[in-house]
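hi! just following up on the protien thing from before. the input was this:
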Amino acid sequence: MIEQSQRRVPVPVAAASVILLVAAALSASMMFGSGPSIATGLIGVLLLLALAYGLWRGSGRARFWTTILSTVSVVYGVVAITRADALGLLQIVGPSVIVGLLLVPASSRRWFHDLPAEE
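and the predicted 3d structure came back as:
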C-alpha cells in the first residue's frame, strides 16, 4: 500500500473553496464593470482568494472568518432584499451553502480540527 503524506481535502470543503473562487471571479468581473472602485474590488477579491486557500489548507481561522462573513452576507441579503432577481437570490443562497458545507458534515469538522479519520 502506498502511504500518503498529505490528507485529502473533504468534498464539502473543496466545494466551499470552489464557491469562494467563483465568487472571487464574479467580483472581479463586476469590479471592471459598473461595480465598486478598483481598490475596494481588489481587496474583496484578494480576501475571497485568501479564504479559499485557507479552507483548502485546513486553517481554522479561515473557517471562522468564512463562516462569519457568510453569515453577515446572508443576514444583509435577507434584511436588505430589494431585488427579487437571480443575483439577489444568489446573494442569500451562496453564503448559506458555504456555511452549511463548513459546519454540518463531519468530514469538514474533522478537516479543521485535525481529528483522525474514522476507520
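The helical segments are 11-31, 38-57, 60-79, 86-103, 106-113.
The mean pLDDT is 85.
cheers
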